[in-house]
Amino acid sequence: MSGPGPPDPGTGPTIDRYLAEVTARLSGPPRGHAGIVAELRSGLLDAADAHRSAGLPPDQADLTAIREFGDPAQVASGFTAEIAAGQARRVAVILLVTGPLVGLLWIAAAARLGIRIGLPWHWTGLSPGLRVGILLVAGAAGVTAWAAMLGIAGTGRLTRWLPARPRRAPTAAAVAGFGAVGADGLGLVLLAAQLATAPGKLSPVPAAAAAAAGTARLMLANRAARRCLASRAALT
Amino acid sequence: MRAETLKGHLDGILLAVLEPGPRHGYAIMEALRVRSGGQVDLPTGTVYPALHRLERAGLVQAAWSAAGGRRRRVYQLTPAGRRALDAERSTWRDFSAAVSALLQPAPPAMSSP
Q: Which residue of A46, A177, A222, B85 has the lowest C-beta tally within 10 Å?
């Protein structure tokens, strides 16, 4: 699918004004609005053309097309749920993709700590605090993964069979985002604690990479989760 | 017919309008008006979000096309959309048959001798 392309040259000032009113009322980040507005514009122009062919003078044709289109606030609010769902889906996909990557870096950073595959109480040489911390990071990562999968499922093909609940996907994406904030934030705390107590047990390059990636993901996830909460609040 | 009256049926109606072939937004509105004999006259702008929802559910697919110098988003049914339309039709047949039977004036009650 190609992008919306440049604006149609045939737009009259009345239609432009109307579209500006709709655009101002659309929810979510403005960069997602271009495609919607381009589609509405082509629909309005087609309708105005039809009225012109039927004999109306050009400005009357534009006004009639606008009247048929509906109140700008009503048109814009019709897109609120769709915009929120698209945003939730993007956030969930990004979190689900970046999770394992950042997770692998954390695992690499902790490789020399003495964690072996196996049950946590078999891990040797770890302080009880570090054990609990690592389990909490894993738990938060698990919550993130589940919530992200729920967010993706709730915005795709499954919506054919699921009852329509517009707030479900933004909620799931926000939970996934805050889960990632928890996992990465706690990972950074554990890393700092380890640096303060026994820095020699850390693998320096993976630890630095994990710290950088974890910080970036934490900030991204925090912002995304807040946005999803905001769009959730806009849904009545 | 107002939007509230159509609530719950708009998805099926849009799928039906797309059954004969791909259409862009304005052509969909026009088909709604013509096929309903002018009875369905929704605020045009409210139909687009419904089309986007159907697209997300995989019942229609959309692509930009530039026929005639104007770029339009063209919608067409997917195989899943066709199946959903069939299901919608049979549900509606059962429902409307039952409601028609119920709304029919009942025959006068037999008076006892």
A: A222
Distance CA A187, CA A29 (A): 30
- Whether A74 sits inside 8 A of B46 (CB atoms) is yes
Do the bridges between strand B72-77 and strand B23-24 make them parallel or antiparallel, or are there none, so unpaired? antiparallel
CATH number at residue B74: 1.10.10.10
Dump pLDDT digits (tens) for A128-153: 888 888 889 999 999 999 999 999 99
Residue ranges making up the domain that contains B55: 3-99
Q: Which domains does chain A have, with CATH numbers?
A: 13-78 (no CATH), 80-234 (1.20.140)
Closest-CA distance, A106 to chain B, in angstroms, reads: 35
Length of chain A: 236
Rounded to the nearest angstrom, the minimum Cα separation between B100 and chain A is 27
The answer to whether residue B36 neighbours chain A at the CB level (below 8 Å) is: no
Question: Which residue in A97, A109, A121 sits closest to A187, CA to CA?
Answer: A109
Q: Note the pLDDT tens digit of each residue in B64-99.
A: 998 778 899 999 999 999 999 999 999 999 999 999
Looking at the domain assignment, is residue B69 inside a domain?
A: yes
d(CA A143, CA A113): 25
Sole residue written with tokens 């072996």: A116
Dmax (CA) for chain A in angstroms is 86
Mean pLDDT of B92-112: 85
